[in-house]
Specification:
This protein is mainly alpha-helical and 120 residues long. Helix content is 51%, strand content 10%.
């Protein structure tokens, strides 16, 4: 692509020879540089990696650690036995939950309070 500039009342173009006017020029081919070894990149970029550590810790703390709670929903969790040795009971916890009339009363209260806050 050629650019047109006006200097001293005359228009000049900095078109590439052999290029048709009005057509976009082809992009120049990039020179492929050799890939730096991992150790060199680490030594060069260690401050950036250090700045990323708090963000990675937050991702682990708030995205991956709660997944243990999802698994414990399907176990008869005993805090003495811990996460790995608790008995697996499948959907029994949910069957007990949905069979409990107090759950349905609490669920109804939650829906009413949500509706009241929505309308208010």
């Amino acid at each position: 692509m050629s650019a047109i500039s006006v200097q001293g009342g005359t228009a000049t173009t900095d078109a590439v020879p052999g290029e048709e006017p009005g057509k976009a020029s082809k992009k120049r081919a990039r020179v492929k540089r050799p890939k730096l070894p991992l150790r060199v990149r680490f030594r060069r970029d260690w401050p950036l990696l250090l700045m990323a550590v708090p963000a990675l810790l937050l991702v682990v703390a708030f995205n991956f650690l709660p997944m243990f709670g999802t698994v414990t929903a399907f176990e008869y969790y005993d805090y003495i036995l811990g996460f790995w040795q608790s008995t697996w009971i499948g959907l029994q916890n949910f069957q007990n939950l949905f069979a409990d009339p107090n759950f349905w009363h609490a669920f109804e209260n939650t829906l009413v309070l949500s509706f009241v806050q929505l309308v208010r």
